[in-house]
Amino acid sequence: MTLKEITAKVLGMDANKINGKTSRESTSEWDSFNHLLLVSEIEKEFDIKLKMDEVNTIKTFADLEKILRTHGK
Amino acid sequence: MENSVKKGRSFQELKIGDKAEFEVIITEEMHGNFAELSGDKSPIHTNSEFSKQNGFDNKIGYAFLLSSFLSRLYGEYLPGGSSICLKQELKFIKPYFVGDTVIIRGEIVNRSESTKIADIKVEIVRNKTEIVSNGIGTVKLLF
């Protein structure tokens, strides 16, 4: 699955409506529980382990893309 | 009802491969109580003749009664009162019946340090050998 597909699945959203600017603040589905689920699913799918401070810095979909790049994905 | 505060396992104490299981005998009383609680009086669960006419040996047990035992698994055994359940995926593979003994099993299969989330593979087995339900639960450890 792609990052966008995982995000859409966890948040229960249409993948076509997700872009770099999709944010926790503007997306009601991206609540605190779904945020943790999303991180956990990303770690499993891409076989990476994030640090707690990384998890806390994620505010937008673009942040997720950036974190994946820093982990070489 | 308030219970004394009980400490389950912490995230750090929880390891991949940790397992727990317990047995439950499904009684007529449980079945009836679940019918009242859920409000589901459909004939496949309440009328033996109807169930037999539809190819079952007897009225079939409620799938969601079985799933309620996952609450006991997580709350009392694994991790045992230190988590909240965020997600549950469950397949209902085969029917079960009043009088069956079911085993509810759980095993930690994934843990995320950054989120303190653990995935628990669950399996519900009828009469020691027949898997009637399986799936994955995701819990968030509170400490």
Structural class of chain A: mainly alpha
Largest interface: A-B, 13 and 11 residues
CATH topology of chain A: Non-ribosomal Peptide Synthetase Peptidyl Carrier Protein, Chain A
Radius of gyration of chain B: 17 Å
Assigned CATH superfamily of chain B: Hotdog Thioesterase
Strand order of the largest sheet of chain B: 1-3-4-5-2
Strand content of chain A: under 5%
User: What is the makeup of the main sheet of chain A?
Assistant: none
- State the assembly state of the protein chains: heterodimer
Protein name (chain B): MaoC-like domain-containing protein
InterPro entries (chain B): HotDog_dom_sf, MaoC-like_dom, UPF0336/Enoyl-CoA_hydratase
GO molecular function (chain B): (3R)-hydroxyacyl-[acyl-carrier-protein] dehydratase activity
Pfam family, one (chain B): MaoC_dehydratas
Short description:
By secondary structure, chain A is mostly helical.
Can you walk through the features of this model?
Chain A is an all-alpha fold. Chain A has helices spanning 3-11, 32-46, 52-57, 61-70. Chain A has four helices and no strands. In chain A, helix 1 (3-11) runs antiparallel to helix 2. Chain A is globular. With 143 residues, chain B is α+β, with helices and mostly antiparallel strands. Chain B has four helices and five strands; from the N terminus they run E-H-H-H-H-E-E-E-E. The mean pLDDT of chain B is 96. Chain A binds chain B through residues 33, 36-37, 39-40, 43-44, 49-52, 54-55, and chain B through 86-87, 110, 112-115, 117, 119, 138, 140. Chain B: Pfam families: MaoC_dehydratas (PF01575). Chain B: One of its GO terms (biological process) is fatty acid biosynthetic process. Chain B: This is MaoC-like domain-containing protein. Chain B: GO terms for molecular function: (3R)-hydroxyacyl-[acyl-carrier-protein] dehydratase activity.
